[in-house]
Amino acid sequence: MLHVLGIIAPMFLLLGVGMAASFSERFRSAQPGLNAFVFYFSLPAFIFIAVANAPLNDGVPLAFIAISLGVTALVFAIAYLGAIAINRVRKRPDDVAGVAPGAFAIASTYGNVGYLGVPIVLSVLGPEAALGAALGQLLHNVLFMVGYPLMKTLGRETRARAAGGIGMLLWRVAKRSVVFNPVVLSVVAGVIVGVTEVRPPAVITASIEMLGNAAIPTAMFAVGLTIKPAWEGFRTRSVSPGGVAVATVLKLAVLPLATLAAVLLMGDALSPQWGAAAVIMAAMPVSSTANIVAFEYDGDSRLVGATTLVTSVLAVATIPLIIGLLG
Q: Tell me, what is an example of a GO biological process annotation in this record (predicted)?
């Protein structure tokens, strides 16, 4: 419990600094620039270093990959389709009242696996769980930093009835969400470096590490900047309290418990260490990066920011409870 609190506390302090800064218009107006810096520079550098240093040549159980991707994708689909259905029943468009399906589904499933999940997995399971932690982070990033942009871009292009046939449509989708996606490029580069063990010159590596080291404080500061607008959204009803509550339950309870159920169903196909890593990763609060993704592809991160705040506070209690279920 104290290990977990010791890891979470500094993040809360950084988030609090950002929240305090959000009362100044100077810093509120800087949020788009901070988000862009993290998304296009600092986060790719952070991911590149993590992937390049992961023991990719070691064996990986396929059950871990199936659970990490499958359960998260299933809960995401339920949240996304559920938001669409509720909006239609209420006869509201999908982009009002803070319950846009994309942002809601992200808030329900996109966990802080990198900044918080990896340190907690290593502190609870030991350094021998490093591969599971790194792979869990990589799979999560692929799902949300590649899969979600691909889905959003494909949806926009389909609605726009892009000319040029299916080939041109797929190229436009791939160009935005894969070919020119800085996070995807960083994952590919990290895998190449990790597998070939061909390291960049020391000066380049040091520069990338410096950029990557800025990802956590900058992202948490940017999340803090969203808290005041998110709170104001609660007051003005521009952020749905019900949407935040349901997303919180899905993220902190449904997703980790569904992952635990899948691990138990796999039986001997997954060792206790790999199974525990998958469950702990699923129990993380909403990622600060989720705000950046929602802002980049949905144009509004208020609901995600509010859910990040709520889940980060409640995770102080829920993470130890989930770990306790693992025995």
A: transmembrane transport
